[in-house]
Amino acid sequence: MNRSATVAAELGLRLVVPEQGGVPLTATLYYRGDDPYAIRVAFHVGMDDPVEWIFARDLLAVGMQTPAGEGDVRVWPAAPGQDVLNLSLSSPFGQAHFEAPLAALSGFLLRTFEVVPPGRECDFIDIEGELKELIRWA
User: Fold this and answer.
1) What is the pLDDT of residues 97-123, one digit of tens each?
2) DSSP annotation string for the chain
3) Least enclosed by CB within 10 Å: which of 42, 48, 69, 101?
4) Is the pLDDT higher at 122 or at 53?
5) Is residue 1 very low, low, confident or very high in pLDDT (cuts 50, 70, 90)?
């Protein structure tokens, strides 16, 4: 368990486009021990800079078992026998629905649990450092 440890994984996703099937794209998932509640996903969509979303690690973990999320990010398992996880993202600019490989996501999530075990996230937050930053900018 190391506060500075990181986990990264590159995945092939499918952007679900109604009446057109799907569009393949690549995304990179990142997890940092010093930000133990968050997962970052960088979607490589053909622009110079990827589109990045940040959401809770717990949301991904719960969404592998049962539908999760009520806001901009929702995650839910596919129908039995399918090896994908559904991920829906919405913003004022639009909505996107992705299918992600379940095995690769599970492997990524397990590696994050090795860095910071579930339920131990608060042990990895530098409260003093965060307070110093807040005071510095106040």
Assistant:
1) 999 999 999 999 999 999 988 877 777
2) --TT-EEEEEEEEEEEETTTEEEEEEEEEEEETTSTTEEEEEEE-SSSS-EEEEEEHHHHHHHTTS-B-SSSEEEEE-STT--EEEEEEEETTEEEEEEEEHHHHHHHHHHHHHHS-TT-GGGG--HHHHHHHHHHH-
3) 48
4) 53
5) low
